[in-house]
Design goal:
Blueprint: H1 3-22, E1 29-33, E2 36-40, H2 47-63, H3 67-82, H4 92-118, H5 122-135, H6 140-152, H7 156-174, H8 180-191
Helix pairs in contact: 2-3, 2-4, 3-4, 4-5, 4-6, 5-6, 6-7, 6-8, 7-8
Length: 193
C-alpha cells in the first residue's frame, strides 16, 4: 500500500467514525468496493429535482384540467426555485445551474397564472404572468398569458397594450415580429366583442 492509499484509508476511517457518532445506521455511510469509495445515504431529497418533477406534474395536470394538482405542484416548484441557488458563489457551474432553475420558476408561475385565471382570480393570474414577463421580457408565452389574463379580467385595452409593448421590444431589440401564436392571441382579443 502506498502513502496515498494509507492517507485515504485514514480519512475514510475518520469519516466512518464521525458518521457513527451522528447515528447514521449501517449500511449507510461510506461503502468500499475494489479500491473505490461511495457515500450511501438512506433517502436523499434533492430540492432541484423535486422542482423539475413538480413543474412537469403541474403542466400535465393543467393539460388534463386537474386544477388542484396543477396549483399545488406549481406552488412546490415555484417555492423551491424562488430561492437563490448558492447566492454567494459565482463559479461557472453555479451560473449554469441558475438559468435552468429560472426557467422552472417561470414555467411554474405560468401554470399558476392559468389556474388563477380559470378559477376567476384574475388579478392573481395577471400578477403571475407579469412576474414572468418582467423576469424574461422576450418570453412570448408569458406575453400571451398576460394578454389573456387581462382580457378575461375585462381589461381589453391593457391586453392590447401588452402586445404593443411586446411587438415594440421585438422590433427594437431583435428586428423581428412576435410569433404567429402571439399575434393570434392579439387578434382574437382585438376582434372580441
Amino acid at each position: 500500500m502506498n502513502d496515498t492509499s494509507t492517507a485515504i484509508n485514514a480519512i475514510v476511517s475518520k469519516l466512518r467514525a464521525a458518521l457513527r457518532k451522528l447515528g447514521v445506521p449501517r449500511p449507510y455511510g461510506v461503502a468500499s468496493d475494489v479500491g473505490t469509495y461511495q457515500f450511501v445515504v438512506p433517502s436523499a431529497w434533492i430540492d432541484i429535482e423535486e422542482a423539475r418533477t413538480a413543474v412537469d406534474r403541474a403542466e400535465g395536470a393543467l393539460r388534463s384540467n386537474t386544477l388542484s394538482t396543477a396549483w399545488s405542484s406549481a406552488n412546490v416548484a415555484a417555492a423551491i426555485t424562488r430561492q437563490p441557488f448558492l447566492p454567494d458563489e459565482e463559479h461557472l457551474w453555479v451560473q449554469q445551474q441558475r438559468a435552468p432553475l429560472q426557467r422552472v420558476w417561470r414555467r411554474a408561475l405560468l401554470v399558476l397564472s392559468e389556474v388563477s385565471v380559470r378559477n376567476g382570480e384574475h388579478e392573481l393570474g395577471i400578477q403571475h404572468a407579469a412576474d414572468v414577463l418582467a423576469a424574461e421580457p422576450f418570453d412570448e408565452t408569458a406575453c400571451q398569458a398576460l394578454m389573456r389574463a387581462h382580457a378575461v379580467a375585462g381589461n381589453r385595452a391593457e391586453a392590447l397594450r401588452v402586445y404593443a409593448n411586446c411587438r415594440k421590444l421585438f422590433r427594437d431589440e431583435l428586428g423581428a415580429e412576435p410569433s404567429e401564436q402571439t399575434a393570434a392571441v392579439f387578434l382574437s382579443i382585438l376582434r372580441a366583442e
